[in-house]
Amino acid sequence: MITLVRTSAALVLCSVLHAATALAGPADDQAAEILESTGVNGGLIVHVGCGDGRLTAALRASDAYLVEGLDTDAKNVQAARRHIDSLGLSGKASADTFDGKHLPYADNLVNLVLVSGVGVQVSADEITRVLKPGGVALVAQGLEFPDTRHLTPDTSSLSPTWTKFTKSWPDTIDQWTHYLHDASGNAVAHDLEVAAPKHLQWIGGPLWSRSHEYDASLCAMVSANGRLFYIFDEGPTGIIDRRIPDKWKLIARDAFNGVVLWKQEIRDWGWTAWKRAEMEQIDWRRMPSQRFRLPVAIPRRLVAADDRVYVTLGYQAPLTALDAATGRTVKTYADTERTDEIVHQDGLLVLCIRTSMEGANVPTGKKGRQGQRAAAAAALVAIEADTGRRVWETEPGTVIPLSLVVSNSQVFYHDQDAVVCLDVATGKTRWRTPTGGAANSVWNTDLTLVVYKDVVLSAGRRQLLAMSADDGTVLWKLPAARGWGIINPPDLFIADDVVWYGQGNLHAESITGYDPQTGKPVRTVDLGFLITRGHHARCYRSKATDNYLLLPKRAIEFVDLKGGQHSRHNWVRGGCRYGVLPCNGLLYSTPHPCFCYAGAKLGGFAALAGERETGNSKLETRSVVGRLEKGPAFGAVSGQQSAVSKDDWPMYRHDAKRSGGTATAVDPQIQPVWKAELGGRLTQAVVAGGRLFVGRVDAGQICCLDAVSGVPVWDYIAGGRIDSAPTVYTFVVPPSGGSSKVRNSAENTKEPPKGGTTNSLVLFGSADGWVYCLRASDGRLVWRFRAAPDDRRVVAFGQVESAWPVHGSVLVLNDTVYFTAGRSSYLDGGVFLYGLDPVTGEKRYETKLDGPPSDLTVLDENAYAMEGTKSDILVTDGKLIYLFHNAFNTRLEKQPTPIKGELGERNLGERDFGEHLLSNAGFLDDSGFSRSYWMVADQWPAFNFAHQSPKAGQLVVFDGTTTYSAKYFARRNMLSPLSFPATDGYFLVADSNATRPVQVRSDGKGGPEFMRWLPQTGDLQTCWNLGVGFARSEPAKWLNNVPVRIRAMVATETALFAAGPPDECDPDDPAAALEGRRGGVLMALNPNDGKKLSECKLNAPPVFDGMSAAAGRLYLSTNDGQVTCMAAK
User: What is the DSSP string of 507-561?
Assistant: First the structure.
């Protein structure tokens, strides 16, 4: 076997690094001086006038930095990209061209703008626009930069060659330092810029929380001084198994661009810390949902103030102060073990310290419900934050979780019967006012306590009571109100000097605001039909700003408290228990485990901005003129490639139907022939005309290798991430020159006419918002088209990207190349779809999916289905083009796909269309989330169960007669599929293409007959009472239980190949196989009966969907950054 390395970087890495070392000293020294003098400790740096990129690369001093260089000279940019790639920094550092005037970034995005290039004409206003609050501009002396009225200059700490400017923090935005905003418990941001989301500021992973049935993955989130801090479980998505430990981390991001600044491991956390005995007695196959069994006070374990983070780094650990910029420990406070809540005000920490974290079990008496647990007694302790000196301490007593608040000179809490006020200086009791009982539970609370100016408000199970903060006198009261969802206490906000109370009425047509001093109604807000009917409210609390209430009925309902411009945003939501966060002029959404609105709902951590002056309204006036750039190979395409044949694999998953099947014959007895070490994350490889083309995802690079020998031929670096395989497009040049009919599929192969030559193009999209066309013979640019309607960049998954990225894999159908640009139809003006001439790049068709916004003038009773879409790789059935549940003809005219069915039949938004391959989470989602799946079907499968279905699984391929499905989940509980590694195994199923999934009624009666065929066959009634979902009505061709978690699969004429990590669960390292640290297994199976024909070990598992086959050979892209070619022994 031959092992090769990438010529463009890895092969010359030693010599490049040697040369770079000789020259890098000045750049490294200069970068260190710049970072020290500006005080920028991570985030996004933009270097204007980057030249050859040496200083740009040096500014990427650690993983906490993301750097992009800009230059007006394309040759400088190419040199910078090569230098950055030679250092292995592609993605974390990048370079691109710009017009010399306009910085192509979203507002408030950048930590440091460094201007060192000559001839730059960027204005101070433009620099101010892109700098985040507190951001810094550093301008080389001698450059023309006359207008600095919006920036504060400072040259005191710098060399005379630079001038420093700092952007001030505006008084129109607010921070969010505690779980409920601040020490007062009033969850209202005094932020005038948070508004209905229209723009993406940044987005990061993971896309999903771990499970709908497990403890919520996000425990806490706060923000201070331009940073965001949260506690999150990074354990494997989609799997809940007592043998596999959680991976809890305290994570810091830049609040304005999402760059991860640092992570701190948290031990003794999760179910093993707060409910081990209970969980060890439960049968996890029948486990009721645990997302409600998170200690209710956990979000109070994290507070941020100025440049400090206060946290308990374990469930029973003492309080620790961390440096907010670096995560380093500053102080651990003595005798603060079992701190359950933290409140900070004016340099004083007030802590609730429990005598025990175990509490006492209190049975509820309700059949089938897990018992409550009473919170243990607690002492309140006041500590000076800087010195750690203990100021005072109370005797242990009852302190209701989440009731501790502080304001000015007073401390308040609820002791289960009354509100108690202490003097903040001494800890002595000032007054105590009975209010009626409150639940003293570890898991939930029915109480909200807020202090506002000189009024204390207590909303409990019996009433809302307003008391004088001075002496506890009752000022006024209102009847009890309900909270949203299943376990949330009633809303209680004081926004814009008005009390808003108890909005959790699912049928409310208006809400009333009260005077905080008198309790008299002072404002009524008509809601119209803002609140939808059906389904439950979300499992998190409302939050607010002075302008809006953010209600959690279906996701986020914005109640405009002043102008009546309400809006409903079902396409974005927060994770269970915590929800969303409004501050810094942004709305932060968090990963969730919800299935509703598949195909349209946003995932991951995201920061969303309201409408901006530089925003969507200006997109309508922009033209495609100037967006097509012709490269040096335009009009001069003349290669020596062969025409596409049935043995080629010319595009993602082989063909436009994305079948993953090929007519080529691959011997089942195969072995490695060569390996190419390319490095980093790789795409699936495509092969045509004897050449192999593969993308280095994060490097934004296409590599071309000889498909037979693996020898590198050429490479091309684009301006952003390339997330999926390119498309090879072959056409014919007749003897007279010019292009004739285009052919690009195994079904439509045209041999060159006599006297003509065959030419191939490589087409792909990039996250920089462009679509590229390269000459396949040498990688030279033929053309590129800017699909993004504007050059506006954000940060996405740790890289700078366009606000309208294009997926790497474009679709070629009927002589036209189709693709999307955008992320969500609800953000940045929508998702744009294009059809171009693949030879010339000229636009043929264009459409846009924008929104649509919810119509609040009519009652919406469908709580599960919605219009709109995310972006994804396009797929076709040969006639129509599909994007999730949206269908288009070849002229990109949207076709009707009406919602069918009713809730009573458990139809949650199904739609009819032509049978084709689909994924309800997106083809590139490799998370293995338990409620997402692939399916070949003639309807959109808007249901969270398909593990019983034919032609459905976590990966699907098909050929002319048979569909093969890899299934991870053999079991289910009431609401989600389940999988237990090294227990039930994984399933590989073959079905006739004529078989159709059937949908079964919730009671299993009155609908189509179905087969229960997996290991779990109805032994739990709760497994069926919320709907079987999609199931089969006829037996499979064959079914195999396989000891491999299949992540890549290809159907060939002679064998079905499947590969993935082994199904193991090592007691000493239970997650090793799931994380790819146990290598991989490649199996060849007989496609007719599923019998294993051969098996071999892999050093690393394949990347998701990372296998292809061509000309009798198998190609694997693996997690270790290698492409392996395998052929007959």
Answer: T-SEEEEE-TTT--EEEEEE-TT-SPPSSPPPSB--EEESSEEEE-SSSEEEEET
Count the Cβ atoms, other than its own, within 10 Å of residue 104: 22
**Residue 84 near residue 47, CB atoms below 8 Å:** no
DSSP E strands in 928-994: the ranges are 934-940, 952-953, 955-958, 962-967, 971-972, 977-978, 986-992
Please name the amino acid found at residue 1123. Answer: V
Cα(1063)–Cα(1070) distance, integer angstroms: 11
Cα–Cα dist 961/995, whole Å? 11
Helices (H) and strands (E) in the chain, counts: 6, 81
Count of other CB atoms within 10 angstroms of residue 497: 13
Q: pLDDT at position 185, please?
A: 98
Distance CA 400, CA 416 (A): 6
Residue 964, helix vs strand vs coil: strand
> Please, are residues 792 and 802 in contact by the beta-carbon 8 Å criterion?
yes
CB-based burial, 211-238: b 16+ in 10 Å, e otherwise: bbbbbbbbbbbbbbbbbbbbbbbbbbbb
How many Å apart are CA 203 and CA 796, to the nearest integer?
A: 5
- H helices of 194-275, in order, are 271-274
Q: Is the dihedral of CA 817, 818, 823, 825 positive or negative?
A: positive
Sequence-separated (6 or more) residues with CB below 8 Å from residue 929 = 207, 208, 237, 238, 593, 921
Q: How confident is the model at residue 643 (pLDDT cuts 50, 70, 90)?
A: low
As a residue count, the chain comes to: 1129
d(CA 357, CA 1095): 51
* Neighbouring C-beta atoms of residue 21, cutoff 10 Å: 10
- Kindly tell me if the per-residue pLDDT of 1023 is higher than 60: no
Query: CA 246 from chain center: how many Å?
Result: 19
Omega of the bond prior to 593 within 30 degrees of 0, cis?
no
Q: How many CB atoms lie within 10 A of CB 937?
A: 23
Domains plus CATH for the chain? Answer: 2-166 (3.40.50.150), 188-612 (2.130.10.10)
**C-alpha to C-alpha distance for 982 and 979, rounded to whole angstroms:** 9
Going across the sheet that includes 218-224, the strands are 218-224, 227-233, 248-254, 260-265
Task: State the number of CA atoms in the 13 A half-sphere of 654 facing the CB.
Answer: 28
HSE, CB side, 13 Å, CA atoms: give it for residue 80: 31
- Predicted confidence (pLDDT) per residue in 889-914, tens digit: 999 999 999 887 654 445 567 888 99
Distance CA 1037, CA 1057 (A): 17
> Using CB atoms within 10 A of its CB, is residue 75 exposed (0-12), middle (13-18) or buried (19+)?
exposed
Tens-digit pLDDT profile for residues 1064-1115: 999 999 999 999 999 999 999 999 999 999 999 999 999 999 999 999 999 9
Rounded Cα–Cα distance for residues 65 and 57 (Å): 10
Residue-wise pLDDT tens digits, 439-452? 899 999 999 999 99
Strand pairing partners for 714? 704
Other CB atoms within a 10 A radius of the CB of residue 366 amount to 8
1072 exposure class (CB count in 10 Å sphere: 0-12, 13-18, 19+): middle
Q: CB-side exposure of 693: number of CA atoms within 13 Å? A: 34
Cis peptide before 1067 (omega within 30 of 0): no
609-641 confidence digits (pLDDT tens): 999 976 555 565 455 568 999 999 998 775 444
Helix pair 13-38, 74-86: axis angle to 10 deg: 100
Strand ranges inside 766-910, DSSP E: 770-775, 781-786, 793-796, 799-802, 811-813, 816-821, 831-836, 843-849, 875-876, 881-883, 886-888, 894-895
Task: Quote the CA–CA distance of 630 and 617 in Å, as a whole number.
Answer: 29
264-273 residue pLDDT tens: 999 999 999 9
pLDDT tens digits, one per residue of 371-418: 678 999 999 999 999 999 999 999 999 999 999 999 989 999 999 999
C-beta separation of 992 from 1043 below 8 A: no
